[in-house]
Amino acid sequence: MDALGTVAYVALVSLVMNNAERFFGTTKTVVGPIAFLLLFVFSALVTGGLILGKPLMMYLDGQKKESVKLLLYTGANLLVLLILAFAVLILKR
Q1: Count of structural domains within the chain
Q2: Has residue 79 got a pLDDT over 90?
Q3: Could you report the per-residue pLDDT of 12-37, keeping only the tens digit for each?
Q4: Which residues form the domain of 54?
Q5: What share of the chain is helix, strand, coil (3-state, %, to 5)?
Q6: Which residues of 34-67 are buried (b: 16+ CB within 10 A; e: fewer)?
Q7: pTM for the whole thing?
């Protein structure tokens, strides 16, 4: 579930980035790069929370083996979803 939430968030950010010029127009000021970098930092926070939040809480509650398993399963699920995304890109060529 954490992997799906991460994919949904990444898809939303990708949608915004693909349509940024239509949403915000073009800019030659420093605000554009600042906004992009803030989005990058915020995305690291969100995805880190989605992927590491529950395993960290479990680890701190003493469920060490279970937390490591959850983290590994989440990573494996993300890898499978990444491979599927690349497969879709390859098949669409």
Answers
A1: 1
A2: yes
A3: 999 999 998 888 888 888 998 899 99
A4: 2-91
A5: 85, 0, 15
A6: eeeeeeeeeeeeebeebbbebbeebbeeeeeeeb
A7: 0.81
